[in-house]
Design goal:
This protein has 114 residues and is an alpha/beta fold. The chain has one domain (3-113): Response regulator (Rossmann fold, 3-Layer(aba) Sandwich). Helices cover 40% and strands 25% of the residues. It has 4 helices and 7 strands, in the order βαβαβββαββα. The protein has helices at 11-23, 35-45, 62-71, 102-113; strands at 3-7, 27-32, 49-53, 55-56, 59-60, 75-79, 95-97. Strands 2-1-3-6-7 form a 5-stranded parallel beta sheet, with helices on both faces. A two-stranded antiparallel sheet has the order 4-5. The two termini are 12 Å apart.
């Protein structure tokens, strides 16, 4: 079973995403609301893939993206601000628009898991 790391600082949004992930038959890990929490879960849990919010409070999520890329763990960004908000060096990564729509999450997860 695929294990999906949720990196999201808004509790209700993270809960909705976890619900979607579990509806798809996957296991959710997290959520991580800070860069430090996310990095600890990347190292400790070794997820299959991740959905990574671009901004975690006042923190940029680029360090998490770098750690995931270095570990060979596929991931997609989540943002409500469009592709221009993706961190430099990661503009070509898959993106899920917020607010989340089940079909968009499913499409992106299917593409990065396979």
């Amino acid at each position: 079973m695929a294990r999906i790391l949720i990196v999201e600082d808004e509790a209700l949004i993270a809960e909705l995403l976890a619900m979607y992930i579990e509806e798809m038959g996957y296991q959710s890990i997290g959520p991580a609301a800070t860069v430090a929490q996310a990095l600890a879960l990347v190292d400790g849990e070794r997820p299959t893939c991740a959905i990574l919010d671009c901004l975690l409070g006042h923190e940029d999520s680029a360090p998490v993206a770098k750690a995931l890329a270095n570990a060979g763990i596929p991931f997609a960004f989540a943002t409500g601000r469009g592709p221009g908000s993706l961190p430099d060096g990661f503009k070509q990564r898959p993106m899920i628009n917020k607010p989340y729509i089940f079909e968009d999450v499913q499409r992106v997860l299917t593409s990065i898991i396979s």
